Amino acid sequence: MDLLLEGKRALVTGSSKGIGEKIAKVLAEEGAIVLVHGRNDKDAKRVAEDIRENGGKAFIAVGDLNTDEGAKKVADAALTLLGGIDILVNNAGTYFSRGWNNTMSEQWAEIYNTNVISMVRMIQLLTPQMKELAWGRIILVGSAFGQYPGQIVPDYSATKGATNTLTVSLAKELAGTGITVNTVSPGPIATDNLYNLMLDTAKMLDWGTTDLSDIKERFLEGPMKNPTGRLGKVEEVANLISFISSPLSDFINGSNLRIDGGYVPTVN
């Protein structure tokens, strides 16, 4: 299927590694011109070089989206290097293996800034030029924890719940502009960050093992159990986001699209 992304200009925040890296690479494979973003110049360059070596088009922007100045630096780079942005994938975010009793109030504020306000900054900076184009895609990378939180990572779960409501509000705000806004909410996806979270959680819960294969099995039998019976793959998330980025998805708007193997046991 041709997703009609040839020549579309995409900024993927937090795309110097993990899920964001794969999103950037799949969009480039579909013909989009991609701006790779990260805090680390070396990692961003590596991803961009990989894209170019595979025949795609990529540039880089380095900046800290946790500050107004850093976000403006990235937005300015996007407008200068690409001449505008058609697709904004707000992927940058973080989480930590910590529970209610060892998460301080200032840490709640910090992660909210990183996971929610950073998205708001980029939306406010790039939406005006999308309106001029009368077409655009804004995609927020959420999490199954936004709908189905547990006692672990409560601060992260709260930020992803906020992501879902932000999406609906923004879709209404942008009604009639040609810009759609959607959340894509992955469940447990096999990444280095997830494996580190599993190891940290096993230690915190005193499971008595450091063997990752054993820990993964226990997670899939317990807190990450899902009907599909496995962890998701980064390319599965990237493929969904590429479709939502496409002109073929014009009638999908204000939605939360779960890609979690059935992990969330409720009607969406």
Explain how this protein is built.
The chain has helices at residues 18-29, 41-53, 68-82, 105-133, 154-173, 192-204, 212-221, 234-245, and strands spanning 9-12, 33-38, 57-62, 87-90, 136-141, 179-186, 256-259. The chain is α/β, with parallel strands linked by helices. Strand 1 (9-12), helix 1 (18-29) and strand 2 form a beta-alpha-beta unit. It folds into two domains: 9-187 and 233-258, 3-Layer(aba) Sandwich (Rossmann fold), CATH 3.40.50.720; 188-231, no CATH class.
Key descriptive features of the protein:
about 270 residues, 7 strands, 2 domains, 7-stranded parallel β-sheet, alpha/beta, about 45% helix, globular, Rossmann fold
Radius of gyration over all CA atoms, rounded: 18 Å
Strand element count? 7
* Percent of residues in helices: 40-55%
CATH topology of the largest domain: the name is: Rossmann fold
Tally of alpha and pi helices = 8
* Largest beta-sheet characterization: 7 strands, parallel
Give the full name of the CATH homologous superfamily of the largest domain: NAD(P)-binding Rossmann-like Domain
Number of domain modules: 2
- How far apart are the termini? 27 Å
Q: What's the SSE pattern?
A: EHEHEHEHEHEHHHE
CATH class of the largest domain: Alpha Beta
Shape: globular
CATH architecture label name of the largest domain:
3-Layer(aba) Sandwich
